[in-house]
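User: Fold both of these, please.

Assistant: Here is the first one.
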Amino acid sequence: MADILIVEDDRRINELIRRTLVMTGHKGLTAFTGREALSALGKKNIDLLLLDIGLPDMDGFILMKQISEDYTDVPVICVTARDEVPDRVKGLKGGAEDYIVKPFAMEELLARINVVLRRFHKEQNIYHIRDVEVDLARAVVKKGGIPVELTNREYELLKILLANQNIALSRERLLDLAWGRDFYGDGRTVDVHIQRIRKKLGMEQDIKTIFKYGYRLEI
């Protein structure tokens, strides 16, 4: 999907983010200092940069300014423990596309990453799961080359599962993402739609049920 550079000096957090990105189809590259980040940007085509503001060798805001001047096509998401409003404003005014405060849920980070990648047209548009093809750009789903009609809600659920592949999502979270927080349904609504998706696309073995929790699309 996308080459994402993680600039984070905490090696545990850096590796956790990297593994999560790999699980969801992205390529996670790591840097632990500002200098390492600049070196990586000079050598590779980076689609997105996740930047910790509190780096050991330089201020993250200064680094972001340099990146915005030298690599104008690389979007930045600030991922930091600094939660004060002035820091948020400084980050966003300094060129960051988003600002997320630690601690955070990986699911939220992935959602924000997908939004920024879509904004810069760097997201993956076509997915293949065995004989199923999902073309997000055209909103077309095919099985064995034959178009399959999904309802709007089924299609939204499928997109959410694709964006969070290999990650377990609770029924409540799926309800929030696909129906909105104002919807007064329950987990059974999700169950019914998941069963329909499985049947229409033959994905009984791909969309796993997580007992007493929710579902995970395994790729």
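And the second sequence with its predicted structure:
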Amino acid sequence: MPSLPTKTMLQKSKREKKELRAHYREIRNRLSLESRHLLNGAICSNLATLPCFETADTILFYYPIQSEPNILPLARHAKDLGKRIAFPVSNESTCTLTFREVASIESMTEGAYGIPEPSDTDPIVTDFSHALCIVPALSFDPFGYRLGYGKGYYDRFLADFGGISVGVAYCCCMDERLPKGEYDRAVDQIVTEEGGFQTK
């Protein structure tokens, strides 16, 4: 029977994640606006060619903050294709996400953490059988594990998500192997500006 992680091991993992967050945040922030614009365009193009994007009837997006890859042009494209687009609403007390379908990106207003969110009258998405969830992070590794912001929102959501999950990251923010905990959830695929691949 595998041994349980000790308190010292958990503290080391938390410390390591904190250092990695600062590291990858700095790398992302150093990218020029021009470089970021080009990389974002390539990421959106690569996402649009995924078979899971083409077959999904519902796509769960995130609203980019700080220096996250901007996938909003893809959300508008998906809407033009007749797909349902949804964005998360954060419940700060439970650190959980609820996705609500939006008629347009412009209809959202500032919510938790200053991030635009759907209104409480927008319909909640409950059927994920033909859904694609695009997942943000500070970093991903080839195994699909992510380095988020430490609250566990997406890990909780992905634990019960029945669709396909795709992480997006710039190549400069890919890591060989990230530290992971018991509740960390891997994504199914990863897309960078250089293309997409299945996780190991």
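The two ends are 24 Å apart (CA to CA).
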